[in-house]
């Protein structure tokens, strides 16, 4: 493949890696990982609420990796309560999984930045065959993609298997019991998924950059000259 095309491919991959690093950093600092609604089951059972009355007992909840907000609603109007995972909720959440998610997010950001730097170095410098060359680029992309997948698996298990939303909703609640009414992953979670797909795409771009297309090979001038001589 011509050097100019390789430079364009490496520049594209580098910009994608940089965008992923910035997107992952923004995702870590936001509260848009999970959105949902919580039902005050105790209050609803006390008044036998159903239909339109049930909405008076449904509150909202959203949170990220460090903090969030829940609206406690038990028939007397909503009351927003802010919370933080450290140190408030550290005793009731699966702390090892939660810390692992944050750790892998950090690794994802670091290696996405490293990959972006090496992609640019390969585009505008003289690539080496170990760290800055194809082996290194495959390595950075593989690590970033793997971290993104682990983040989604661990955080999904924390939310769905360990019922994280219910634990947060019932934090310091002595009278009322809250149940998860609806729950869905929000923008920050899907940003990590996009980052994983982008790093997988970068691995494909590296392969394309190293592939010699048949039509890109120069023609053999000696063969052409011989054919012309035979014509005369």
Automatic annotation (TrEMBL):
Q: Does the keyword ATP-binding apply?
A: no
**Topology versus the membrane, per the UniProt entry?**
Multi-pass membrane protein
TM regions (residue ranges): 97-123, 135-155, 189-209
**UniProt keyword list:** Membrane, Signal, Transmembrane, Transmembrane helix
Q: Name one Pfam family in it.
A: Clarin-2
The family classification in the record reads: Belongs to the clarin family.
Q: What is this protein identified as?
A: CLRN1 protein
Q: Which organism is it from?
A: Brachypodius melanocephalos (black-headed bulbul)
Highest lineage ranks of the organism?
Answer: Eukaryota, Metazoa, Chordata, Craniata, Vertebrata
